[in-house]
Every structure is written in structure tokens, then in C-alpha cells.
Amino acid sequence: MNTHKTINLKNGTRAVLVPVDGTAAVTVMAFYEVGSRYEPSELAGVSHFLEHLVFKGTKRRPSTMHLARELDSVGAEYNAYTDRDNTAFYVRLQSDRLDLAVDMLEDMVYHSLFRTEDIRSEAGVIVEELRMYDDNPLMAVEETMQEELFRGSALGRKIGGTPKSVMGMDRKRMLDFRDRFYRPERTVVAIAGNFDERSALRLVEAGFGRKRPPRTADRPFRRHRFPHGSRPVFRVVRKETEQVQVAIGFPGYPSEHRHSVALRVMANILGGTMSSRLFLTVRERYGLAYHIQAAAHGFQDVGQMAIQAGLSKDGVHRGLDLIMSECRRIARRPVTAEELNRAQENIKGRMTLGLEDSRSMAGWYGRQELLQRRSITPERRIREVMAVTREDVQRVAKDIFRPDRMAVSVIGPFDGQEDFVRHARKL
């Protein structure tokens, strides 16, 4: 079992220290409690844009080349991501260069130059990134579904924004946004791997611990409320494709909800593996799809349960009927003991393998501390998974699979939604 410590620095930054045995590497991740759901509509995509600009240069390292060359010279892995509720930057390298990782991240996050010319050039890069996703139906279909599922909320907007919002970014407003949210009390620095605890803490205190909170106040995100008494929503995007992409979404549970673990087990049984119900029915028995999957995801206040499939043009309606039938079946009849055990062992195995390296351990503990103000061990999560019962699985399926709260996105050579609405009756 991995032990971990959370230390609150004087300025409000939280340091999470996770020693990992049997590795010569160390990962430093800096997490910030900000993402696309915190953005006003006119600044849609600003969190993602700021993430890009952090890699453009600082006063001490004035260009991307200077940053990259210093990290590449020690064989480091480094990157960043922006999500709806958090942004993170990381460096993974050999353990005797921990000082470089901490110094580099602190320098990039807090001392980037944000030059006007960099903003202009990077805007074009990001627009091309957005077009790449839009041109790929496999990537675009889930975002399209989420726009309908979370309509009226920033959760329904694309993380990267739109070409219009990106090209219209103003430097001053971007930096004002950064100052509101890149604050010590919204920061978690997670270090995982092979390191000396005292030395690591000194490095974090000397870097991230020096940051003073700005005078400007941050703004919490607006909590999402799913409407009651609604009806299923179908959105069809015409695109001349040989394969039809379909995403089906339902309101789920927040990440810390008492039923969130049972929902994860249910999603695994339904479509989480190559031996799941949807895979065996839609792909293996009827040959209507190459890929099909189901997964649950939770935010701080809400969640989603999503099913995604790539279906043949001729078989899309048959495939949708089969998907609805399997959702109805798992809600009406208990799963077998064998199915439950197989799903539990699968989740346990994936977690164990997925947390083998220092980067994944830093992500596990750091993100939990950031968003939940506490961290539980992987071992405890596994115990929670193994405690789920057949009754728990059926209970969450009944609660989740409600046609009146369903959002469906279809990308393929079709006009209008009329031919698809009837599938809601199959649920």
C-alpha cells in the first residue's frame, strides 16, 4: 500500500507527497481548480488557451525551445491537459532531477511571458486543433451529445472553445482570468515516485510556496441542475460518412455520490470490456459495430453515463434498438453473480495496472485533493468496488436509464431527427 501525505503550505498551496517503491523516476504535477466550466461564454476556451501559452517561454527560459531543450536534455516526459473542472501540468524524470521538475513547473505557470505575438500565433494552432476534432466524428460525437445533455451550462461547451472565441481572445482578459483562478488556495502540487520527503517539501515551499494570492477574487462555477419533466433529445449532424457515430448520454452521479462506484460497476458490465453485454450483442452477435463502449464520469456536482458506438449505416437503427434493449434489461433484471464478479475483478485489475508508475500515482492523489479536498487510497477504492452488490447495480440502472432525460447525438449521412426519436420508446 502506498502512503501519502498532504501538507498545507503557509500561502494555501497543498503539497501531496506519494512515495512509490521500486522506481527510479519521480513525477511532479501542478493542479489548478479551473477549467472550461469556470469560463464566461465570451472567454470560452481560455483555460485551454492559457495551458498552451505556458509552454511559450518565461523570462529565464524565453522560448519553447529553451524550455524543451532543458527538459529533453535529461530525458524528461512533460505535458499538460485542460478538463472541464481542472487544469494540470506535469514533468516526469529521473529522481535525482526533482529540483528541475519543480523549478520548471513553477517558472512556466507563474512566470510565463504571454507575449502578444505568441497569443496571435497560438490562436491559429488551437483553431486547427478544434477543426481536427470537428473533422473526426469519433471525437466530435460525444461533445455534441454533451452540448445537449448539459444544455444551459458551461459543462455543455467544448473545452477548447470555438474558433470565434479563440481568435477573439484579449491578452488583458486572459491574464485577469488567470489571476482569478491560478491562486495558491486553488493549487495542488503532487509529487510521486522516488524522492526524499524533506527535500521535496523544501523545493515546493521555495517555489510554489512563495506565490502570494492576488487581490482579485475568484468566481466559483455555476452548479448544474438537470431539468425535471423534460423529454429525450436527439441531435443529428449530417456528414457523409461510411460509419455512423452515436453517443447516448444520461445524467449520472457526482464523483463523491454514494452510488457512483456502483454506477461504474454497472457501466463495466454493460459496455466496459470485450466481454460486456453491449459488445457481445451489438458487435459479436449481430456484427453492427466495430467499437462500442459505456462509461460513467462524475464531476463535483453532477455526472454523466455515456454509451458510444460506431454503427454501420444500414444497421444504425437496429443497433440503437439493441442498445436500448440492453439498457432496459439491466434495469429490470439483476445481473448474474458471475457478471458482477467479472466486472469487479476487471476494475480492480485495471486500477492496479494503471497506477504502476509515478505519473499515474501523482494524478490519482493530486486530482482528488484538488477537487474533493481529500484523497483516498486505491486500496480503499478497490474495497468499495468489491462491496457492490447485484441489487446495487440494478438500483443505479433503474435510476439512470430514463428516456425523459436522455440525450442522443448521431453523426452520419442523415437529415433530421424524426427517424431516430422512436428509439426512446425502446428504453
Topology:
Elements: E1 5-8, E2 14-19, E3 25-32, H1 46-53, H2 64-72, E4 77-82, E5 87-94, H3 98-111, H4 116-134, H5 137-149, H6 163-167, H7 171-181, E6 187-193, H8 197-206, E7 233-238, E8 243-252, H9 260-271, H10 277-285, E9 289-298, E10 303-312, H11 316-332, H12 337-354, H13 358-372, H14 378-386, H15 390-400, E11 407-412, H16 418-421
Parallel strand pairs: 2-6, 7-11
Antiparallel strand pairs: 1-2, 3-5, 3-6, 4-5, 8-10, 8-11, 9-10
Structure write-up:
With 427 residues, the protein is α+β, with helices and mostly antiparallel strands. The protein folds into two domains: 206 residues, Cytochrome Bc1 Complex, Chain A, domain 1 (2-Layer Sandwich); 194 residues, Metalloenzyme, LuxS/M16 peptidase-like (Cytochrome Bc1 Complex, Chain A, domain 1). Helix content is 43%, strand content 19%. It contains 16 helices and eleven strands. A six-stranded mixed beta sheet has the order 1-2-6-3-5-4, with helices on both faces. Helix 9 packs across helix 12, helix 9 crosses helix 15 and helix 11 packs across helix 15.
